[in-house]
Amino acid sequence: MEFSRVEVITSMSKLSSLKQALSKIGVSGMTVAQVIGCGVQNGTYEFEAEKNEEMELLPKQMIILYVENEALDHVVDVIKKELYTGHIGDGKIFISPLSNIIRVRTGEEGMDALK
Questions:
Q1: Cβ(69)–Cβ(3) under 8 Å?
Q2: In whole angstroms, what is the distance from residue 80 CA to residue 114 CA?
Q3: Backbone dihedral angles phi then psi of residue 50, each to the nearest 5 degrees
Q4: Region 25-33 average pLDDT
Q5: 3-class state of residue 87 by DSSP
Q6: Which residues, 6 or more positions from 85, have their beta carbon under 8 angstroms from its beta carbon?
Q7: Torsion angles phi and psi, residue 49, rounded to 5
Q8: Where are the domains of the chain?
Q9: Model-level pTM?
Q10: Which one of 12, 44, 86, 108 has the minimum C-beta count within 10 Å?
């Protein structure tokens, strides 16, 4: 079985609804870190008239999930649906291949370590 690492960077207000939606589809774990950063708008808020000349680092959340590839499309669709507002700052999703998962305590690997 193959796995993917899904990293989501989004605004601070999105965690609760995203966590609920992912729980409903059986996602069993995630890691969340508060980070600062900016995207192509250099940290310019949507209501500001001009784009920032210099980067302005804004508070964000980085949410990391590990999912089996069979469930990847469904998980990503749920994430996109939960984060979408149509406004600047909805976020980005990064997907990377993952070769294995190992639970240190038991030595389980792959799906056994994930669940």
A1: yes
A2: 23
A3: -120, 150
A4: 93
A5: coil
A6: none
A7: -70, -40
A8: 3-114
A9: 0.84
A10: 86
Three-state SS for 15-48 is HHHHHHHHHHCCCCCCEEEEEEECCCCCCCCCCC
pLDDT the model gives residue 74: 97
CA–CA gap between residue 17 and residue 79 (Å, rounded): 10
CA atoms within 13 A on the CB side of 38: 15
Separation CA 41–CA 63 (nearest Å): 21
| Helices 69-83, 15-24: crossing angle, 10 deg rounding | 140
Q: Is CATH 3.30.70.120 what the domain over 3-114 is classified as, yes or no? A: yes
Indicate the average pLDDT of the chain.
88
The whole-number pLDDT of residue 46 equals 60
Q: Is 108 left (phi over 0), alpha (psi -120 to 50) or beta?
A: beta
d(CA 104, CA 114) in angstroms, rounded, equals: 12
Q: How far apart are the C-alpha atoms of 100 and 42, rounded to whole Å?
A: 35
Summarize the confidence of residues 13-19 as an average pLDDT. 92
Q: What angle do CA 32, 53, 57 make, to 5 degrees?
A: 15
